[in-house]
């Protein structure tokens, strides 16, 4: 079995604190990006603005040139937005592409220790850096829109009115971020208390320690007032059930060392 693809280590992405939790492998990093409901995208709005801008967005890793590429292979990050949004305008006007950072975090548990200083989360996080450019062709835009729609609920694209009409295509802009580098960080397991506290009977006998698992759970779908489909589709009910069970399993496994 060959070595897994990794992002190159550069000053901006090298994990320093708790570097044993860091990863540069594409698979785990892309998995966090694709499983996170919201991505936070940061960029410099203008040379005169001292504050970086950060936006919650929907995005998905994929490859238009190699659609069958797996999560552990080189991919681009597609971001969905409105055509007149500031981020979109800046990317459109940038000759080399707009530098952006993309961040996502999944929390799997609350880690409760003997001292406040040792409290933590079990988590999986990912950060990407790259250059954002508008997707130029309708074919690639539709490809990206399908990926992003199916991120909301798998197989949703094929169960909607598609393809998008001319107005929808014109008002929607897709950014493709060519990733330069990235990193991930993962924390699993129980609290890691210091020996000086573990040896104190007065502390250990009065302070509960452990992990409270955290997972994303989905409720039963609720039809809207204009819905005319009597039964909830199987693809939706099965996703709600299976995704919730998977999320729970991941959180429970993360609680173990």
Automatic annotation (TrEMBL):
Residues 182-202 are annotated as: Disordered. It comes from the Eukaryota. Transmembrane segments: none annotated. Residues 187-202 have a biased composition (Basic and acidic residues). This is Flavin-nucleotide-binding protein. The lineage of its organism: Eukaryota, Fungi, Dikarya, Ascomycota, Pezizomycotina.
């Amino acid at each position: 079995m060959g070595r897994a693809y990794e992002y190159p280590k550069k000053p901006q992405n090298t994990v320093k604190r708790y570097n044993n939790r860091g990863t540069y492998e594409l698979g785990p990093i892309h998995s966090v990006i694709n499983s996170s409901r919201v991505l936070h995208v940061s960029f410099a709005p203008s040379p005169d603005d001292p504050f970086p801008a950060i936006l919650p967005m929907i995005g998905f890793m994929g490859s238009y040139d190699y659609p069958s590429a797996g999560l552990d292979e080189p991919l681009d990050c597609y971001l969905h937005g409105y055509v007149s949004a500031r981020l979109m305008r800046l990317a459109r006007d940038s000759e080399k592409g707009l530098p952006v950072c993309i961040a996502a975090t999944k929390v799997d548990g609350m880690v409760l220790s003997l001292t406040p200083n040792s409290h933590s989360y079990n988590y999986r996080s990912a950060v990407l850096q790259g250059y954002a450019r508008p997707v130029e062709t309708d074919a690639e835009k539709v490809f990206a829109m399908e990926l992003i729609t199916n991120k909301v609920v798998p197989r949703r694209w094929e169960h909607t009115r598609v393809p998008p009409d001319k107005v929808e295509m014109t008002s929607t802009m897709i950014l493709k971020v060519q990733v330069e580098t990235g990193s991930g960080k993962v924390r699993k397991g129980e609290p890691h208390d210091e020996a000086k506290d573990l040896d104190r009977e007065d502390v250990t006998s009065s302070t509960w320690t452990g992990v409270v698992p955290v997972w994303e759970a989905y409720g039963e779908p609720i039809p809207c007032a204009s819905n005319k489909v009597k039964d909830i589709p199987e693809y939706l009910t099965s996703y709600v059930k299976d995704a919730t069970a998977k999320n729970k399993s991941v959180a429970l496994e993360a609680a173990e060392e």
